[in-house]
């Protein structure tokens, strides 16, 4: 158990819908990262938040957005869902200056039908 | 940009030693990490190299040569539970860039 929690574990929804994925980082970790993992693309970095502020942005679509709240939990919002958005979405956290050692949550498997 | 190359699949025998290679291209080097991911599971951190040489953690060791832009993960005394995907990743204080992963199959 990494100490990072993600809900829900599975999510099945239809194209065009909007979903919210939730993540709570390890106690004391200020950085939260979101990744998308699909069979053909591997682990793709989406976005990083540090202590409530956006720190870095990766290959995140405009239909996707995220935020980190004062209690440090984070939410990833996915809208206008397409079939290609079906993937495993991981949240990870790390201490301030050690992004090379990240602790991953169990992931949310999103299926868009 | 940054990119990493690693073999897609490796098969090894239980009890043996296996080496998973990773070559990378980056304009600025900040360290090479290794992660393990079992099917359906989350990636877990294994090791990190910032300087040239070998880092040992139990049955796992990781090596880095910055001059060759090359690293490897060495797994000794292979066990069936080591069957998983292994990812190398670039970065230290910036978001990690992951390789596409090497799927290790340990056979009896």
Descriptive labels:
heterodimer; A: 113 residues; mainly beta; seven-stranded mixed β-sheet; four-stranded antiparallel β-sheet; 0% helix; B: 108 residues; five-stranded antiparallel β-sheet; 11 strands
Structure overview:
- The complex is a heterodimer of chains A (113) and B (108).
- Chain A has no helices and eleven strands.
- Chain A has strands at residues 5-7, 10-13, 19-24, 31-38, 42-50, 53-57, 64-68, 74-78, 87-94, 103-104, 108-112.
- Chain B is an all-beta fold and 108 residues long.
- The model of chain B has no long low-confidence stretch (mean pLDDT 94).
- Chain B is built from no helices and eleven strands.
- Chain B has strands at residues 3-5, 9-13, 18-25, 32-37, 44-49, 53-57, 60-65, 70-75, 84-90, 97-98, 102-107.
- Chain A binds chain B through residues 2, 33, 42-43, 45, 48, 56, 58, 90, 92, 97-107, and chain B through 30-31, 33, 41-45, 48, 87, 89, 91-101.
* Discrete helix count of chain A: 0
Class inferred from helices and paired strands of chain A = mainly beta
Tell me roughly what share of residues is in helical segments of chain B.
under 10%
Order of helices and strands of chain B: EEEEEEEEEEE
* Number of DSSP E strands of chain B: 11
**How would a textbook summarize the main sheet of chain B?**
6 strands, mixed
| Most extensive contact | A-B, 21 and 22 residues
Count the strands of chain A? 11
- From the structure provided, what is the oligomeric state, counting identical versus distinct chains? heterodimer
Which regions of chain A contain 5 or more consecutive residues with pLDDT less than 50?
none
Helix percent of chain A reads under 10%
> Could you tell me the mean pLDDT of chain B?
94
- Biggest sheet descriptor of chain A: 7 strands, mixed
Order of helices and strands of chain A: EEEEEEEEEEE
